[in-house]
UniProtKB/TrEMBL annotation:
<protein>
    <submittedName>
        <fullName>Nitrile hydratase accessory protein</fullName>
    </submittedName>
</protein>
<dbReference type="InterPro" id="IPR049054">
    <property type="entry name" value="CN_hydtase_beta-like_N"/>
</dbReference>
<dbReference type="InterPro" id="IPR042262">
    <property type="entry name" value="CN_hydtase_beta_C"/>
</dbReference>
<feature type="domain" description="Nitrile hydratase beta subunit-like N-terminal">
    <location>
        <begin position="21"/>
        <end position="104"/>
    </location>
</feature>
<dbReference type="InterPro" id="IPR023808">
    <property type="entry name" value="Nitrile_Hydratase_acc_put"/>
</dbReference>
<dbReference type="Pfam" id="PF21006">
    <property type="entry name" value="NHase_beta_N"/>
</dbReference>
<dbReference type="InterPro" id="IPR008990">
    <property type="entry name" value="Elect_transpt_acc-like_dom_sf"/>
</dbReference>
């Protein structure tokens, strides 16, 4: 999904704590931008409200802090991704089992992919 700057800024303003500058949200890694875009697309499709998102993200961050996350900001998008997985499962978009199956398949595919090459999922990645 390609985000317009206006969409990204609206989301960054709607959800407290999103790392941003005057132009909108900022990302340190490409996967962070993809996770942000997926959440925005699901919000715009009506899967959840920003209030639901913020409450779930806040609970995720508190849980992580209780488990020792130093809350330096470096793990913010890991919490974002965990929130995305939680809401996708809670709203019936995909089950937790399916999400874990795909995450494991991506891990397997990444393990066999040379550094710098595109990661491609294959049927055998799901067989582990």
């Amino acid at each position: 999904m390609d985000l317009t700057p206006q969409q990204a800024m609206r989301a960054a303003v709607a959800v407290p704590g999103v790392p941003r500058d005057e132009d909108g949200p900022v990302f340190r890694e490409p996967w962070e931008a993809r996770a942000f875009a997926m959440a925005l697309a699901l919000h715009e499709a009506g899967v959840f409200t920003w209030k639901e998102w913020a409450e779930t993200l806040g609970a995720q961050i508190k849980r992580a802090q209780a488990e020792g996350d130093p809350d330096t900001g470096e793990t913010y998008y890991r919490h974002w991704l965990a929130t995305l997985e939680t809401l996708v499962a809670a709203k019936g978009v995909a089950t937790s089992d399916l999400l874990h199956r795909y995450r494991d398949a991506w891990d397997h595919a990444a393990d066999r992919t040379p550094h710098g090459a595109p990661i491609e999922l294959r049927a055998e990645d799901f067989g582990r």
